[in-house]
Amino acid sequence: MSSDLSGLEAARAFAQGAHRLFIDGQWRPALSGKTFATHNPGDGALLGHAASAEAADVDLAVAAARAALDGPWSEIKPSERARLLWRLSDLIEKHADEIAALETLDNGKPLRDARLFDVPHAIETLRYNSGWATKLGGETINLSGPGTWHAYTVREPVGVVAQIVPWNAPFAMAVAKVAPALAAGCAVILKPAEETPLTALRLATLIEEVGFPKGVFSLLTGFGETAGAALVEHPGVDKVTFTGSTEVGRIIIRAAAGNFKRVTLELGGKTPVIVLPDADAARAAEGAARSIFTNAGQICNAGSRLFVHQSLFERVVEGVADYAGKLRVGPGLDPETQMGPVISDAQKQRVSGYIRAGVEQGATLRAQGAAAAGPGFFVPPTILTQTTPEMSVVREEIFGPVLCAMSFGDEDLDQIARTANASDYGLGAVVWTNNLSAAHRLARKLKAGTVRVNGGGLDPALPFGGFKQSGWGRENGREGIEAYTEVKAVAMAV
Questions:
Q1: Inside any domain, residue 464
Q2: Angle at 369 between CA 363 and CA 374, to 5 degrees
Q3: Angle 96-107/170-183 helices, nearest 10 degrees?
Q4: Would you say residue 465 lies in a domain?
Q5: Domain containing 119 — which CATH number?
Q6: 3-class DSSP state for residue 426?
Q7: How many structural domains are present in the chain?
Q8: Residue 151 domain-assigned?
Q9: What is the chain's pLDDT, residue by residue, as a tens digit (494 residues)?
């Protein structure tokens, strides 16, 4: 308890500080002098102010990044990059209680979730990617043309990378992007969501403390339409990686066309959870509930569509409803809280509007948990049944704690997969079954970047990304770090 309290005290003190941009190894105000406020979603209270970067600040950050790439950063050995990342993970571990509390203040999620998942996941992501720094090699190639050749490939850093991260898991997502880019030898310009700048700012202070060369990492707090747009359009940026909505992803694709930037996009999702008739109903119900209610449903891979065989439908839905009814919804700093608020009043109104629209279109409000009273942005955990594919709650990403439950009969696996795949998204899918053959067959048929069977979660070694409108490319694993490299082929006559 004492470490939690001291962490919260440090977090509050940091939040109230004077927050500037971090460019070329220095903290400086935005050239415009503008700032913006950040608030606690749990009670609406003002936390602090951050500098609001614009195009002129982006120019400075890109110039600093380019100078670092052309200078000292290119000379640093892979083993030293690995050591720098490991030292950063140690510093995060040292300040874990403070960072978790800061994440809860700014994002609203339960403190125990931030402390037990977000921060440890960030630490492990850095340590995993530090190992890749020394393993990004090419290969020798035997050529078949006339002559004698020594031919080989090398992997080189893609260059200056703009990284734009969302507000739903701001610290873990920032680290997940920064770690592989730095391990690969790129220079990074990070822009956190305007709703949640604080843990990215704290991350920047730790990167500064570790001693990365100046210009290798810059932090630009600000808004998407100013700082974000300027980064994506900048001719000096070689790659953009973005996690967020599909709508913004489309804007980024168009903007990146100017200099054919490399683009990685992790976008929306409408993850199906499929419960086959042989599944353990109790485990499936708990798993389905966790999948949609964790982080108040503000997860791109949240299991928002539940498909249950008719023989288990009532048992599973009742199990999810019982879970929802017992969930303690409240401010993230309350140790009893199991589900926090959504990020803003606008998000609360958006999610509530989807629930109303679902009922108006014929869905049944099967169950709804209790939301905390007070000034925070709370939405109750909600279960809708009698939903149909044409309803907006089934088709569109809600990004809130709303589950659409549907039953199916004795259709074959092809039909089940077709129903689950009837979405513009293809980020993830979950299958509950004890039938090994059915699990493998469904995994092949589901159009999703990640298929989890009987549970499972994120791991920095497991590639993550989506099919269809859920994005381009993969993050994590070998694929994730190789996305920050270019392959060069060399052929030498001998």
A1: no
A2: 120
A3: 120
A4: no
A5: 3.40.605.10
A6: strand
A7: 2
A8: yes
A9: 456 668 999 999 999 999 999 999 999 999 999 999 999 999 999 999 999 999 999 999 999 999 999 999 999 999 999 999 999 999 999 999 999 999 999 999 999 999 999 999 999 999 999 999 999 999 999 999 999 999 999 999 999 999 999 999 999 999 999 999 999 999 999 999 999 999 999 999 999 999 999 999 999 999 999 999 999 999 999 999 999 999 999 999 999 998 999 999 999 999 999 999 999 999 999 999 999 999 999 999 999 999 999 999 999 999 999 999 999 999 999 999 999 999 999 999 999 999 999 999 999 999 999 888 889 999 999 999 999 999 999 999 999 999 999 999 998 999 999 999 999 999 999 999 999 999 999 999 999 999 999 998 889 999 999 999 999 999 999 999 999 999 999 999 99
- DSSP 8-state symbol, 339: B
- The dihedral sign for the CA sequence 80, 82, 84, 86: negative
Asked whether residue 19 is assigned to any structural domain, the reply reads yes
CA gap 160, 273 in Å, rounded: 39
Q: Rounded to an integer, what distance in angstroms lies between the CA atom of residue 129 and that of residue 12?
A: 31
* C-alpha closest to that of 161 among 74, 69, 239, 213: 239
Q: Do 337 and 237 fall within a single domain?
A: no
Q: Could you tell me the pTM of the whole model?
A: 0.95
Domain check: are 260 and 277 in the same one?
no
190 plus 281 within the same structural domain: no
CA–CA–CA angle 77, 79, 83 (5° rounding)? 120
Looking at residue 463, its amino acid is: P
Name the active-site residue from 98, 103, 195, 300: 300
Pair 184, 167: CB distance under 8 Å? no
* Helix and strand element counts for the chain (H, E): 18, 23
CATH code assigned at 434: 3.40.309.10
Neighbours of 152 (CB within 10 A): 15
3-state secondary structure of 141: strand
Residue ranges making up the domain that contains 391: 272-459
Choose the catalytic residue: 233, 266, 397, 475. 266
In a shared domain, residues 413 and 366? yes
Residues 388 and 426 in one domain: yes
- Same domain, yes or no: 49 and 154: yes
> Which residues are 157's β-sheet partners?
485
Residues 240 and 334 in one domain: no
Q: Which residues of 97-111 are buried (b: 16+ CB within 10 A; e: fewer)?
A: bbbbbbbbbbbbbbb
286 is catalytic: no
Q: Mark whether 137 and 237 lie in a shared domain.
A: yes
266 assigned to active site: yes
